[in-house]
Design brief:
13 helices, alpha+beta, two-stranded antiparallel ribbon, about 425 residues, six-stranded mixed barrel
């Protein structure tokens, strides 16, 4: 393997056919370059698509009331129904798989928002009524002050937590908003915190969060709630917990057992699994295309090595005639094939990593000038060290098998026929 004469012969042969060697090496380098870039780009898509959900509790679901599509219990079809406080109490008591459950209220005008005023400044923002525990499902970063707490709920305090965009519009940059008053639909609430969402969604930075009980009482919601979020305990899937909850809701609100459209739901756990399967398919496709390109490069090397064997027929015959064992001839052919493949693949791998690094810097620069919580659909297009090592090992095997057939052909040449070859 490390014989000086063998490497001199290899470099001498490569130097005599520089263009052929370069073109052969380019085929392999291009194949590994494409594999690295496509894999890194696929990872960038996965990272971008899942970034907004990383902090969100994966084992979570959301449920709300919808219009019935079937008549049942003396009620006609087409009836709108609403969740209420008693539903949440029963779900907590009867559904064993529920870990956290948090009812929510939203303002009555979801499209235009609610009127929020401070002094001469006014704007329309989304208003939500929440329990403090909702922060465990959909986390946020508190920039100033605090989030809602249990005392706010118990005492029905008129306090609020505002999103970052609300703070920027309603207050000057050097003004501390904590303790200041905002008028929401004609009712004053004291600001106790400023938040920034950790997950993207419907303009969360443009939202005013009120204590659930305060909003329910102040704006005459009665015991009605708009929807609730929940997480599951270990060992329970979101789907099976949802099925248990639906049994309670159907019984409480006289819903037909087979009316699947009467209860709205969103299963984040299921959605994440769907996304994982989709991205798994993309990665498989990337590897199929990349390996196919690599195999094409290997075929090119194999063809070139066959030409090399033909050109060296007389030389091989002389080696065999003076007693060179078949293993030496095979070793020389395989060494040259693996060497070309590995070096070319290394350059392709390095160039691919450089391109991904440049793309990563460009996307980072774009995110730096974008709004803090704007969705990123492409980020961190990188490949791991494991993938790089696997690619290099794969290159060695490709080079080995690419040179194997020409090497076997070389040792089948009879010395006397090789010496006669012109």
């Amino acid at each position: 393997m490390f014989e000086k004469d063998r490497w001199q012969e290899i470099f001498n042969a490569m130097s005599k056919n520089k263009l052929r060697t370069a073109l052969t090496a380019f085929g392999v380098a291009w194949a590994i370059f494409m594999l690295v870039v496509m894999t890194g780009s696929g990872n960038g898509l996965v990272n971008g698509a899942t970034h907004g959900f990383r902090s969100f509790a994966e084992n979570s679901g959301f449920m709300w009331g919808m219009m019935t599509t079937k008549a049942y219990g003396g009620f006609n079809r087409g009836r709108w129904w609403s969740l209420n406080n008693d539903d949440i109490i029963e779900i907590k008591d009867q559904v064993k798989g529920v870990d956290i459950i948090s009812p929510r209220l939203n303002g009555r005008d979801l499209s235009e928002g609610e009127n929020v005023v401070r002094g001469l400044r006014s704007a329309a923002y989304t208003v939500m009524g929440d329990y403090p525990i909702y922060k465990e499902i959909d986390p946020c970063t508190i920039l100033m002050g605090r989030f809602l707490n249990d005392e706010d709920i118990k005492l029905k305090r008129k306090v609020c937590v505002i999103g970052e965009d609300v703070y920027k519009v309603m207050f000057n940059k050097d003004v501390d908003p904590i303790g200041q008053m905002l008028r929401v639909n004609g009712v004053y609430f004291m600001v106790v915190g400023v938040s920034r969402p950790m997950t993207f969604g419907r303009d969360k930075e443009k939202t005013v969060f009120l204590p659930f009980t305060s909003m329910q009482q102040t704006f005459n919601y009665g015991d009605r709630i708009n929807y609730f979020a929940f997480t599951t305990k270990a060992g329970y899937s979101v789907k099976e917990v949802m099925d248990d909850i639906k049994v309670i809701l159907r019984d409480n609100h006289s819903l037909a057992p087979d009316d699947e459209q009467a209860i709205g739901s969103f299963n984040l756990e299921e959605r994440r699994m769907q996304m994982n399967y989709m991205f798994m398919g993309i990665n498989i496709l990337i590897w199929i295309v990349g390996i196919g390109t690599l195999v094409a490069g290997a075929i090119g090397i194999s063809n070139i090595m066959l030409v090399v064997v033909k050109e060296r027929t007389k030389e091989i015959g002389i080696q065999r005639a003076i007693g060179a064992p078949p293993s030496k001839v095979v070793g020389q052919i395989l060494t040259e094939s693996v060497f070309i493949t590995t070096i070319a693949g290394f350059f392709g791998l390095a160039f691919g990593m450089i391109i991904l690094s440049v793309i990563d810097q460009i996307t980072d620069a774009q995110r730096a000038i974008a709004p803090p919580n704007e969705p990123n659909f492409f980020m961190d297009p990188q490949v791991g060290i494991g993938m790089a090592i696997a690619a290099l090992i794969m290159l060695i095997f490709v080079g080995f098998f690419a040179g194997l057939m020409p090497a076997l052909k070389a040792i089948r040449i009879k010395p006397i026929e090789a010496l006669r070859h012109e």
